[in-house]
Amino acid sequence: MVKLKSNDDKEFEVEEAAVIQSEMIKNMIEDGCATSVIPLPNIDSKTLIKVIEYLNKHINMGKAAETGEEDDLKEFDEQFVNMGWEELFDVIMAANYLNIHELMELCCQSAADRLKNKSVRAVREMLKITNDLTEEEEQEIINDAPWAFEGPEIDDTVN
Amino acid sequence: MEKNYLLGKGKKQKKINCSSNTVSNQINSINGEELFIPWRCTQQNDTAEEMNIDDTAKDIHFPEEIVMNILSRLPVRSLQRFKCVSPFWSALISDHYFTMKHLNRAKNDLNSQRLLTANYHVGFNSFSLSSPVQVIENEQRLDGPPNYYSIRCCYDGLALLSFF
User: Fold this and answer.
1) pLDDT value for B60
2) pLDDT score, position B12
3) What's the confidence (pLDDT) of residue B155?
4) Kindly report the CA angle at B63 between B62 and B64, in degrees rounded to 5?
5) Could you tell me the sign of the dihedral formed by the alpha carbons of A137, A139, A144, A146, in that order?
6) Is this structure's pTM higher than 0.90?
7) Mean pLDDT, chain B, as a whole number?
8) Which family is annotated (chain A) (predicted)?
9) What structural domains does chain A harbor?
10) Which residues does B101 contact at the CB level (< 8 Å), separation at least 6?
11) Which residues of B touch A111 (CB under 8 A)?
12) Cβ contact (<8 Å) for B3 and A132?
């Protein structure tokens, strides 16, 4: 078992087979640096619980293909990313820090799916981006490709 | 040249100000091309005091790598629209490195592979936009002009059409 500690000082025990899906922790274990608790200063306990849930479910990912449990895993993944926007970002940052490739793929794809049909205003709000384009610059971009700004599917809601 | 690239989350949004001198050491170089880091820098004053960050507030700035990862999964239509999000997004989406990344992802995505065909009164020709070719279930017709056209060639997701 490997012990992980979140930035709010909560400890979690995870099976080594699960936790080595994180390249970062795998390297630490291989280098003999994981003998005691591994502190994760960038991850809070709420996010770490989500990440561990994913790691535990995907522990036998290689076997899933053989035993026909792929659909089960797919269903789990769909449910897993069914979380709030801010929560998803926390998981993406954690997956990036821990270097968990599959989790990163899953969550970035979910983020992309959510952004796909959003309006410019909605994207700015969702990502807390300040707009520095002048009205003229903005109009120029719109004039370049007006078809990208029109359509019934464009969604102005923030969620 | 100073840019304002602010990305973050959390209830409290903060601006981090710094001059182009400060940001220069945060510029990534990929394939010899300079890419801007997606966060910070405003066009306001660049005093050291303004760079102070309140460490207690929860505020996450996405690294450029993650922004690129997410954007490279979006269709061209969304990307064209999102050029309006900020100067950084506009620069990123227009960047050659990003274009290549986007193309590579599309090439490896079975769902995005399409067979481009032109069917006009005298003949029929088709080109693969990428390989391997697979059967496409959802045919999408080109919203082309009413004239007849033919496909001259396809390369890297681009098609050259001639109208007559």
Assistant:
1) 46
2) 38
3) 73
4) 115
5) positive
6) no
7) 60
8) Belongs to the SKP1 family.
9) 2-115 (3.30.710.10), 120-159 (no CATH)
10) B68, B72
11) 70
12) yes
Interchain CB contacts (distance < 8 Å): A and B = 95
Amino acid symbol at A40: L
User: Cβ of A159 under 8 Å from any chain B Cβ?
Assistant: no
Six token digits for residue B12: 């409290």
- The predicted complex's ipTM stands at 0.88
Chain A contact for B60, CB < 8 A?
yes
Burial of A77 (0-12, 13-18, 19+ CB in 10 A): buried
pLDDT along chain B (164 residues), means of 10: 38 38 39 41 39 40 86 91 91 92 80 57 47 49 61 73 72
Query: Are B129 and B113 spatial neighbours (Cβ–Cβ below 8 Å)?
Result: yes
A112, A129, A149 ranked by CB distance to B74: nearest: A112
Specify the higher pLDDT residue, A108 or A60. A108
Q: What is the pLDDT of residues A134-153, one digit of tens each?
A: 888 888 888 888 888 887 78
Considering only CB atoms, B73 lies closest to which of A96, A109, A118, namely A109
B3 to A112: CB separation less than 8 angstroms, yes or no: no
pLDDT digits (tens, 9 = 90+) for B75-111: 888 999 999 998 889 999 999 999 999 888 877 776 6
d(CA A59, CA B134): 32
Q: Count CB-CB contacts under 10 A for residue A139.
A: 12
Tell me if B69 and A117 make a contact (CB, 8 A cut-off). Answer: no
* Total number of residues shown for chain A: 159
The token pair that represents A108 in the structure block: 């970035």
Nearest to A133 among B7, B8, B84 (CB): B84
Which residue of chain B is at minimal alpha-carbon distance from A149? Answer: B81
User: Residues with Cβ < 8 Å from A63, sequence gap 6 or more?
Assistant: A69
Chain A contact present for B94, CB below 8 A: no
